Amino acid sequence: MQMMTYDQVRIDDLEIFANHGVLAEETTLGQKFLLSMILYTDTHAAGLSDDLVHSTDYSDVCHFATEYTHDHPRKLIEAAAEDLAREILLHYPLVKGITLELKKPWAPIGLPLRSVSVNISRFWHTAYLGLGSNLGDKKQHLDFAVSQLDKVPGCHVMRVSSYQITKPYGGIEQDDFLNACLTMQTILTPKELLERLHIIEKLAHRERLIRWGPRTLDLDILLYDDLILRTDDLIIPHKDMLNRTFVLSPLCELAPDLRHPITGKTMETHLNQLTSKKP
Fold first, then answer.
1. From 97, 118, 179, 261, which residue has the greatest number of CB atoms within 10 Å?
2. Across the strands, what pairs with 237?
3. What is the DSSP string of 44-58?
4. How would you class 19 by CB atoms within 10 Å of its CB: exposed for 0-12, middle for 13-18, buried for 19 or more?
5. Cβ(248)–Cβ(241) below 8 Å
6. Catalytically annotated residue among 104, 151, 202, 277
7. Percent of the chain beyond pLDDT 90?
8. What is the rounded CA–CA span in Å between residue 160 and residue 185?
């Protein structure tokens, strides 16, 4: 789901001694692992300047990966790979994604083999969220949400729209809303991000009593890269976003030329079409 084609820095078969495993001898005696990585980044500035300041120091990445893998034993190499990929993305800002293969040459399965390995790819993603409140101190609730989101490990709030006063949606008589949108970078999956949003809503004492009813804080995933997703708990793009001026208006502040992954039209086009229908 990465949004562009990146350059690649490859590191092959870095030898690491660590204590990952389920068996007692693996966790006490340890064994050799082989780590290969593809770092997805933009090497253009480094290539033009010939200056390390514009590059990710792959020597440092190797030492970081070696120390982290050695110091954080896990039962499963799946968990070891997941942890390491996340930490590299968090630690090296120029790395936008990583493909990581962790090989276990001496896997104790009692049969001849070259190695057992896990290969994963993880990326930073761009998400757009909708925020709303119409109970209590509305501005404080939105400020709280932005602050909490920026504190979530693996989430960076990039821009926040202006706060806009809007009329209630859905036919329930209630106070006006304060709405906004934000864009963020995240390494969380959509499901993980949704779970974080529910936690933040709960911290703001959100109660889900009436559909489209009053609430202290409402957080919605509008877009996540160009992903099209439909599950029992989550639909991306947000299924009703194109019918809501209180979503499209602040979203256009952030990214008027952003295209809806299903319609292919820009947010500005959708906002213009929606407002032209209103009397």
1. 179
2. none
3. HHHHHH--GGGS--H
4. middle
5. yes
6. 104
7. 80
8. 13
Active site residue 104: yes
- Contact yes or no for 248/242 (Cβ under 8 A): yes
pLDDT over 80 (residue 279) = no
Q: What's the pTM value of the predicted model, to 2 decimals? A: 0.89
Q: Measured between alpha carbons, how far is residue 44 from residues 8, 41, 58 in Å?
A: 11, 9, 16
**For the chain, what's the residue count?**
279
- What stretches of the chain adopt beta strand conformation (E)? 7-18, 31-41, 97-104, 116-123, 125-133, 155-160, 164-166, 177-186, 218-224, 229-230, 235-236
- Residues ≥6 apart with Cβ < 8 Å to 220: 129, 130, 197, 238, 241
Q: How far apart are CA 73 and CA 48, in angstroms?
A: 40
Whose tokens are 């960076």? That residue is 156
Burial class (CB in 10 A: 0-12, 13-18, 19+), 2: middle
Angle between helix axes 138-151 and 190-203 (nearest 10 degrees) is 140
Strand partners, 8: 40
